[in-house]
């Protein structure tokens, strides 16, 4: 399905005289490419506006699949022209140049915590912890920090823990 969306964006860009590319790579989710990049499974786009490349994902922008495997239509423009550092939290291209950030290009994939829709919608960049898999001792404190990529009013942030069959909000 994602390749179809990527071709649609490419064709629309063609008609609008916007240079675009289809990017193939790894989409990270709670069921794939979590701690390491196993199989390429996703396609998205890069578009060139005013001589600068930007990333966009029309597939993930259109909605999501629920735990019951039902597609939920929920438009999210946060996946268009997304900051490359945020985009790389759940998109990793086969060609590293499409990370569009020199720091990311020269680093190795480190399996950061998974972020989705609301994070993109509100342009919130998770800063710490840097890895999805952390080990702590009883009574040890874990600090979560975030950075807003846009000027926004104070909003509530919720952490959600996903396990195989459960979701728990804190």
Give an overview of the whole structure.
The chain has 170 residues and is α+β, with helices and mostly antiparallel strands. The protein contains five helices and eleven strands, in the order H-E-E-E-H-E-E-E-H-E-H-H-E-E-E-E. The chain has helices at residues 2-15, 58-62, 84-87, 102-106, 117-121; strands at residues 19-27, 42-49, 52-56, 63-65, 71-73, 80-82, 91-93, 124-128, 145-148, 160-162, 167-169. The strands form four sheets. It has a five-stranded antiparallel β-sheet with strand order 6-3-2-1-7. A two-stranded antiparallel sheet has the order 4-5. A hairpin with a 4-residue loop joins strand 10 and strand 11 (167-169). The protein has one domain (2-169).
Which structural class do you get from the secondary structure elements? alpha+beta
| Count of strand segments | 11
Structural Rg = 17 Å
Uncertain runs are none
Strand residues, percent: 25-35%
